[in-house]
Specification:
alpha+beta; Hepatocyte Growth Factor; globular; binds 2-acetamido-2-deoxy-beta-D-glucopyranose
Length: 828
Amino acid sequence: MDINNNPWWLLFSLLFICLSLNSHVSNGADTISANHSLSGDQTIVSSRGIFVLGFFKPGNSSNYYIGMWYNLEKVPELTIVWVANREKPISDRYNSVLRISDGNLVLFDESKTSVWSTNVSSTTSNSVEAVLKDDGNIVLREGSSNLTEFLWQSFDYPGHTWFPGMKIGYNKKTKVNQLLTSWKNKEDPAPGLFSLELDPKDGSNQYILMWNKSENYWTSGAWDADGQIFSKVPEMRLNYIYNFSYVNNENESYFIYTVKDSTMSRFIMDYNGQVKQMNWLDGPKSWFLFWSQPREKCEVYAFCGSFGRCNEDTSPFCDCMHGFKPKLEHDWNLEDYAGGCERKTQLQCGNNSLSNGKNDRFLKSPNMHLPEHPQSVAAGSIEECETTCFNNCNCSAYAYDNNECSIWSGELLNLQQLTQVDADGKTFYIKLAASEFSSSKDNKGIIIGVVVGSIAFVVLLGLVLFVYLRRRKRTIKTTKAVEGSLMAFAYRDLQNATKNFSEKLGGGGFGSVFKGVLPDSRVIAAKKLESISQGEKQFRTEVSTIGNIQHVNLVRLLGFCSEGTKKLLVYDYMPNGSLDSQLFHVKDSKFLDWKTRYNIALGTARGLVYLHEKCRDCIIHCDIKPENILLDAQFCPKVADFGLAKLVGRDFSRVLTTMRGTRGYLAPEWLSGVAITTKADVYSYGMMLFEFVSGRRNFENSEDGTVKFFPTWAANRIAEDGDLSSLLDPRLEGNADVEELSRICKLACWCIQDNETHRPSMGQVVQMLEGVVDVTQPPVPRSLQIFVDNQEHILFFTESSSSQSSQKRSNTSAASSQTKSTTSSTSS
Ligand SMILES: *[C@@H]1O[C@H](CO)[C@@H](O)[C@H](O)[C@H]1NC(C)=O
Ligand SMILES: *[C@@H]1O[C@H](CO)[C@@H](O)[C@H](O)[C@H]1NC(C)=O
Ligand SMILES: *[C@@H]1O[C@H](CO)[C@@H](O)[C@H](O)[C@H]1NC(C)=O
Ligand SMILES: *[C@@H]1O[C@H](CO)[C@@H](O)[C@H](O)[C@H]1NC(C)=O
Ligand SMILES: *[C@@H]1O[C@H](CO)[C@@H](O)[C@H](O)[C@H]1NC(C)=O
Ligand SMILES: *[C@@H]1O[C@H](CO)[C@@H](O)[C@H](O)[C@H]1NC(C)=O
Ligand SMILES: *[C@@H]1O[C@H](CO)[C@@H](O)[C@H](O)[C@H]1NC(C)=O
Ligand SMILES: *[C@@H]1O[C@H](CO)[C@@H](O)[C@H](O)[C@H]1NC(C)=O
Ligand SMILES: *[C@@H]1O[C@H](CO)[C@@H](O)[C@H](O)[C@H]1NC(C)=O
């Protein structure tokens, strides 16, 4: 596949060419010695040119730090990996100097005061020098001694980046816990509230994430040395890049890792409380977020601070509860929410100097995830519960649920707004000063109230009428047809149609989808797009391209809305929802039968063929997964969200990985930095085929905490060419065409081959599903095969798999011959 067939790829490249032009002054050396110091714009570079050390300034901050970054010739966006003077910035880099002083590496500021020092050596020898190594370690050594005998090394002082070869763990002798600490925010490398550390419990071999060294909010699960995974991080099975190992002896216990092949990869404790693995992609020249935990930002402890409210579906994720404002506005704008929110108006409770006669009141907040540490209070009714909270000046909120009254005192942490309609949200009442309520209750003079009330009613009626008429006028003015059948909707019309976006159908990486009804009673699904990086003209061009694509297996675009940043796409509503809900979540009585599954697989493949081969410009979907296959009333599949990868453009990689469930469907080439072709869709489609067969997610954490990865087991079964009925969803009770089952299983295995040239094209997939072309015996993909060697330690999908033979397959030669027959027409 040609790069030119993939326009968003081009966009990436163009954007980054500009950035790669700036570079730092370098004097070439990798060493700071008695007669070689650093000042101003000077840098040192590791011997193979991988890392650079020098002064830098993060973002718009006016502070300078000594830091280490990837050589800009390789990674054009400044990526800081280590900072020396994290807490003590300097302001004048030209009059500051990093040099060897009394046997230590010392940073002196403009007033010649030492602000940072390695603090180890007491020698005054002139031969001490500091060397920046290619693994990112700075080593202080005496003379030109062997680098393994050092006085000090930066690897013993981790910042927020965990380098390969760096130990994160506990030194039993020095009692030092060597951990990763986040930056405070994106402009301040000072240690923030979040850290990744080895669980300090004796003998524990798991990692934990801590907030302020006190609250544990995520646990990796124990290290399973045989499976090479942390028990609660099953997706490590699909990690071809990191090789972790655990060391525990009388002196220390720690984890260390190496990076396989030459992938540039970094592991960071981010300032937002998530640990992240990012891989550098040479193609688009950007960091690609491959993995992060906790998955949901709102799971990070106290992410939005006290009285801050986290919402997974909004950007930014944090805002303040009604009646509150950010305590530290500057930090808040840097996405540092730790300061939390404070009341705009103090409560009257307990303050006798406020004698304006207005009492504090409670604001109802529905659909919330309740904060931790409630106090249980005996109360017979919600009124009694409210009174209890009202009379206690320490009480800031209450909830009454299931005849149980809970109250909270003081500052509230971990407030979360839920938006999903079916989520188990609770109603929560927060205490506010009376003045925070726009229409305050006034019980003085009922008559006045009635009179005022009537006037208000008349005024209101007039207003409603006025607004209604104005809206009608606007509607007529703005919603019109463009580009053939495509409608340009006015935002207000969509707001009305969706009852102000009240019925959410789903949310994905590109934005949330809401159900609506148009005035002509046509039912629609309106998608509110997020992070659109395109200009108005481009957006319209792109949308009309998508609008022109019509196929029975593709969701039809009816129209769009584009008013400033408000960008929406309007589609036909699909009554049977998305495939995932039909395949995974439906109660046992209503599962999809085999025939329907097969037809959905075939229809989906036809839709993709149309995108890949029949459109004027080839469209790579990039996000094939059950969530994006919608089902109409007859269970005819319609592929959704195509063309959006292009619309979202540069931010796509970010969007992609924040999407729930996407990872299991990602083709390996997303990691290697080569151009993405239609074969990436084929891979995702293949992963989905396994789910058609099993009726379950490929990745599944079972109740007993074990990890199961269906494709590994299935691929081996298929390679043995035996009875495949054990792979089948037990709910089907064996009711499946044996021939079709075999075809779909073999095909799935071909689709997920590591090497994209071994995968069939979507056109070939259709032919195979139709039975026009035979499917040959597939090899087990190498990435799945790794686990075969560890046979007995892998917890497969069902018990019966344990009887499987563990012999290694020598199918490389078989693969190449079979590949020819399956992919003979792919090379065109
Ligand atoms: C540093 O200075 C010493 C003597 O002062 C000299 O021998 C040595 O070559 C110098 N090193 C460099 C790298 O210039
Ligand atoms: C720096 O400030 C400018 C203008 O205030 C703003 O547009 C830009 O986004 C800021 N950059 C960063 C990295 O915060
Ligand atoms: C070095 O030691 C001094 C005095 O003991 C201390 O104040 C300073 O924080 C230390 N610096 C570093 C970088 O550890
Ligand atoms: C450094 O020392 C180690 C062991 O102490 C030895 O294996 C290695 O060969 C030495 N390297 C050099 C460059 O002397
Ligand atoms: C973190 O803990 C320290 C003491 O353990 C406390 O003083 C500080 O207020 C805490 N920070 C936050 C943001 O709560
Ligand atoms: C992972 O690292 C360990 C220790 O360094 C090594 O023994 C093992 O062979 C490595 N595994 C792979 C798959 O590279
Ligand atoms: C532990 O430390 C002692 C003293 O430094 C050393 O002799 C011993 O070899 C170390 N043990 C291991 C397993 O590294
Ligand atoms: C009471 O209210 C007054 C006026 O708003 C305010 O200045 C004072 O700080 C409050 N006192 C307490 C204890 O909250
Ligand atoms: C309110 O908090 C203060 C200090 O934390 C405590 O002394 C007092 O007993 C509390 N009052 C009630 C009613 O819980």
